[in-house]
Every structure is written in C-alpha cells, then in structure tokens.
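Re: weekly structure request thread

Next one in the queue (138 aa):
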Amino acid sequence: MLVYMYNNDKNFIGSRMAQIDPVQTKKQGKEIYLMPANATIVPPLASKDGFNIVWNGLSWEYQEKPKSQKPEPYVPTEEDLKRNRMGEIQARLNELSQDFVQASIGAIIVDLEDRKTEFKTLHNELRTLLEKEPRQYI
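Done, posted below.
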C-alpha cells in the first residue's frame, strides 16, 4: 500500500510503500499495514508552481509559497563611515607612535620627518572627526 508523507510543517515530501504488520496480518488473515507517522493514504494534489502541497488533517490543499525576501545590501551610514575612518586613523597613529618611541631610543628611521608630518595630519583629521579644534604644531 502506498502512503504519502509530509514533514512537521505538513508539507508533502513524497511517498513510500507501507510495511505489512506481520502480527495483525496473521491474526486477521488479511494484509494489515503499519501507518508511519506523518503519513496518509490520501493521494496529494498535483504539484503547482508557487505553491506547497499541505496536509490539513483531512485532505491536501495548496498553500502559496512564501516569497523569498533578499536582504537589503548593507549601505554604511555616514556615522559608520566616520567610525571606520576614525579606527583606521587610530591604528595608523599607533604604528607611527611606535616608530617615534623607537627613534627616541636611538633607532634610525630614514623618513622620520615624513612620518611626523603624516602623524600631525592624521591627528588633526581625527580631532576634526571628534569635533575638536585641530592643533597647531610648531
């Protein structure tokens, strides 16, 4: 005997042959089948584009498939862009600070003046993003 299976959401998932119950078949003298869980002997409706075939407890019915909603692509806000830029500046200022510490203990840094200029520029950009007045360097 063919049975029609559905999942926990009651959506049709396929069919299979039911197993014969050997004890009851012998007792009753005729074939008795075991009914699997989430199954019925009622044949499902024909498939239909855009619809699931759903068991309602008594019969099959069509249920429109939910429309897939693609998530909107992430568009960073001005605040996000500002925060990201501040993080980039802070990371670079930390690197430059380490160079200055190394120079103060005698390390030779060939482009030290360029790094000082970069530090001042970035430091003032960060201050501006933080809505503080830029510093005047001598």
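The mean pLDDT is 94. The beta strands are 2-6, 12-17, 39-40, 51-55, 60-64.
Next request, please.
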